[in-house]
Amino acid sequence: MSQLPILIIILPLLLVPILLLIRKNEQVYILNIIISFINLILICLLFHHVQHNGALFYELGSWKAPIGIRLNADLLSCYFLLLVNFMSFICLISGKELVNKQIEKENIYLFYIAWLLCNIGFSGIILTNDIFNLFVFLEISSLSSYFLISQGNYKGSMIAAIQYLFIGSIGAVFILLGIGILYVHTGTLNMSDISDNIINAKISLSIIFAIGLFFLGIGIKSAIFPLHGWLIRTYAYSPSIIVAYFSGTSTKIGIYILIRVFLDILNTINPFEYYSLAQLILFLSLAGVLFSTVYAIKQTEIKKMFAFSSVAQISYILIAIMILTPEGITASLIHVFNHSIIKTGLFLIIAILFVNNQNIKLDDLSGLGKNHPFFMSAFVILSLGLIGLPLTSGFISKWYIIQSLIHSDYWYISIVVLITSFMTLLYMWKIIEKIYFSESINNNAITILNHQTIGVFVLAALTIYLGLDASFTTSVSGEIATSLLGPEIK
Amino acid sequence: MNSIILHLVFIILGTLILYALRNIKLLYIIHVLISFLSLFFSINALVTKKFLIQTQIDIIQIIPDLFISFSLDGLGVIFLITSNALWLMTAIYSHKYLELNKYKNKAKFYIFFTLSMFATNAIIYSSNLLTTFIFYEILTISTYPLVTFKGDDDSISNGKKYLYYLLGTSIIFLLPAIIIIYSIAGTLDYEIGGILTSYNNPLMINILIILLIFGVAKSAIMPFHKWLPCAMIAPTPVSALLHAVAVVKSGVFIIIKVVLYIFGPLILQESGANIIIILFASITILLSSITAIKQDNIKLRLAYSTIGQLSYIVLAIAILAPYSILAAILHLIFHAIGKIILFLTAGIITTGIGIKKVSEMNGLASKFPYTVFLMSLGALIMIGLPPTIGFISKWYLIIGIIESTKIYLLAVIIISTLLNASYYLPMIYKPYFKNFETKYNESNSEDMCLVAPVIIIGLAAIILFFNTDSIIMFIQEYIIKL
Amino acid sequence: MIFILNMTLFLIGLFIMIRETNLIKKVIGLNIFQSSVFIFYLIISKVEDGIPPILTTMYGVYSNPLPHVLILTAIVVSIATTSLALALIIKIKKKYSTIEEDELDEI
Asked: Which chain A residues are within 8 Å of C67, Cβ to Cβ?
């Protein structure tokens, strides 16, 4: 049981060279699925263990911390680990035909290997307790994602990949410098040690500089407004299945790093107090919600519309975090989970329907309701979840976000959140109207295989299940928030 | 199993059965049967006095400490029987109506109709604000396919406005109000006397009331009333049942319940919040009556009349006098009956001869005797002339106003009654006293299958006039003390 | 003083990356940018009067070897990034016969 954290990272990692030797696409795919499934089971075991017995530590090579690298599986890690790996698994299951149609045949096995590496990178970021190790895994996942994006067969895929490479590397280097400055002040790279030692450090300009660097690097990774430009471009040009995968994972990893660094490691020095950083991020996110929702309404291309919607939802999550109350953290964590499921589902549906279309206009969706009624019902459920209608998981997150805003000093922000929720209705309903009420144009060519729909329906069913019985997300998020910020003051 | 759950589950099962059997020819029989059994459940609830036992059935815990829960009280029983009885009548009517107007896709109609009535019944049965909110939204969504049933561009654009108004107001206004109430009171259950009783911030109470009356846009308080004329693009049975009985009455029902059981009369009067409701309701009454005069399309005129009549009910509740609360509950029933008669007869005329405007109604009495008589009865109920039931509710409203010493409201009532008369009377004298224009072909006449349900409702209206005492006694026993 | 020089290098690298439109030049800027951070780590590892960290009995004060090790890892990452970037640039050149960013943006 104590070996679980390392197994989750090592098992897929050991598979990678084996997959490199096996060049057959089929076998690579099947082994990938098997390993992802085993990983998922291990994560569930780990989650169960941590929920009942508390955090689990694993020291690499039996070198005791702070000398060695330690893996730390606490509730926050397990929550994100479960989310990321589950999304990866669902996308893998649904993605086989999509990959075959879109990626060049010689590269398919490399594609799956890169996917596996990306997942290993994400898991490593989540599980590690060493801040430099965080940087290493961050780079592992980023490099694999640059490769994955470049594999799209659209006109601008490679260009989008290299532009994302440049921006992502800038962000990573910022984080590296921030890590260096922290090391200077605390003399250790172990996250738990840093949080112990940082109280003793003299708060000088360099620490504030480090905080700023961290924030910029994380901001680039999570596509905080106004650093969200790469997200729109990337989501438009990546292979369709990768967009589905990233929409649920990569930005959420950025949120994880934010919570981990600012609320866990640097918690004792209250990093958000300096230069009113919290207020700054709060109002930037507010602007972000407004701008991205307005842009989303103006979009005519579906993938970009969803991308702007993602930016808006990430801004909701950030708003909930930045009010710095336990309720707010709870709300943001719930929304992380729910939004991943919904966005991945929406992008999956778009991917399954329009694998090779780069420019999916609103009109391309007309009449789909008549041709594939069952399938599009999942789309409707997911859209209702995005808008936040009751009985969907989106309603639960909206409730918690609004409740935490009203209880804090920033109640007026809830007005903006509510109005932008309504605006979400505006752009989603355009799509639903086109699907059900317009005449179809040449949609006979789209055939949907059965197992592709399984993934989508699992996600839609989860949206409703988590809307009816949100005890999993709410209780775990509440526990995490309490452990980070202390219990709620009623 | 508890009969409330049985009732609701039954309606849902009905929806599924309708979907499964959607291709059979005699689907309407199943629909009529479902509505009949639903009525049976409602009368059963009245007869066996289920509402005396204040049991609450908690179903699912959605948010910690907040459940979807159901219970039944006296006020709910009244609305329950009214809406289910009128559902049965509309079900019988809609079969022939869909057939005569050559609508395709009848299964979709019956399925979403049943689903909407499920949502209405669930709202009646809700025992806390969260459950009410959930089913309020479900009602909006399930009526949308009915509003856009015809599928043409007009329907779609009107349906879009309908959806945006209702969902927008509920997301922007109602949701924060519920969350604030939950934070203040710690619970969302309906309790006699209100749950906010110990809260003494009058500004917040006023803000909450404003959020409430805007948020429950189904009660059609201006300025968020536009969805109701938009919804008239739907087929007539939809306009009749949903937008005269189910949807709009749900909105007013929610306002009554929130005023009586969440805020409580005491705190509303103390903080003066009821003045705000009175203000908005009065403005709505007057403006809607004026707008109704300008409408030539029959259904639009009836729609604006509905907006005004709903504000009568809201005004009556806001006055918070015992007699006015009585008037509000009575008008809930009586307006529903009167309006549905008007809509159904308008549908008969449209189906029979294609007339959609009041100006074209000249001399119809010769061709459609029963229909025109019933339409006149409905119009008289709406104006509030004796010996119709509309007069009774207006009478008690006037007593309530005098009781509450807000005499200036009498002016509102008198002016609006005069305005109502001025736009309803043409619908009475044109068919009777003008000559029939021969440009319409005379082959169509009224179909008795369509008229029969309306006759039953009309008979009920007349019987009710002579038996109002029993209803008043029921209300006195179970709802308020006069 | 030396930190200021380091930060200047940092800013130069960043500026090159943002300003230049030629992709190769951007990669060069990326390398300068990353190298400045490596140098930062090296700067902080030097202990005053410290000798290179090889264990002897004569001296007691050693320079800190840990940042050097970290930089080795970071250099590897930087190499991987550069090689991936260059591979992508080669492919872009093959496909579009230009590596100027403003021309690429029009595609």
From this structure: 180, 183
* Contact call for C81 and A132, based on CB within 8 A: no
- For C42, which residue in chain A has the nearest alpha carbon? A180
pTM of the model: 0.90
On chain C, the residues whose CB falls within 8 A of the CB of A177 are: 10, 37, 40
DSSP conformation class of C53: S
Query: Around Cβ B117, how many Cβ atoms within 10 Å?
Result: 27
C-A interface (Cβ pairs under 8 Å ≥ 3): yes
> And the tokens for A252?
């959420």
Say if B and C touch: at least 3 Cβ pairs within 8 Å: no
Q: Do A150 and C91 touch (CB under 8 A)?
A: yes
The per-residue pLDDT for range B416-441, each reduced to its tens digit, is: 999 999 988 888 888 887 777 666 65
Q: Is the dihedral of CA A133, A134, A135, A141 positive or negative?
A: positive
Query: Which of C70, C82, B49 lies closest to A131, judged by CA?
Result: C70
All structural domains of chain B with their residue ranges: 317-482
Cβ proximity of A147 and A115 under 8 Å: no
Q: What is the pLDDT of residue C84?
A: 93
Contact at 8 Å (CB) between A389 and A412? Answer: no
Q: Are B216 and B137 in contact (CB under 8 A)?
A: no
Which neighbouring-strand residues pair with B69? B58
B428: how many CB neighbours lie within 10 A of its CB? Answer: 21
> In the predicted model, what is the mean pLDDT of residues C45-72?
81
* Interchain pair A470, B62: CB under 8 A: yes
Strand ranges (E), chain C? none
* A399 vs B: CB within 8 A: yes
**How many H-runs (helices) and E-runs (strands) does chain C carry?**
4, 0
Identify the band that residue B52 occupies on the pLDDT scale cut at 50, 70 and 90: low
Asked if A144 and A106 count as a contact pair (C-beta separation under 8 A), the reply is: no
Side chain identity at residue B227, one-letter code:
W
B375-411 pLDDT, tens digit each = 888 999 988 888 888 888 899 899 888 888 778 888 8
The ipTM, to two decimals, is 0.92
| Contacts with B108 from chain A: Cβ below 8 Å | none
C51 - beta bridge partners? Answer: C62
Share of chain A above pLDDT 70, in %: 96
Q: Which chains touch B (3 or more CB pairs under 8 A)?
A: A
Contacts of A425 in chain B (CB under 8 A): 163-164, 167-168, 171
> Taking the CA of residue B230 as centre, how many other CA atoms within 13 Å lie in the half-sphere pointing to its CB?
23
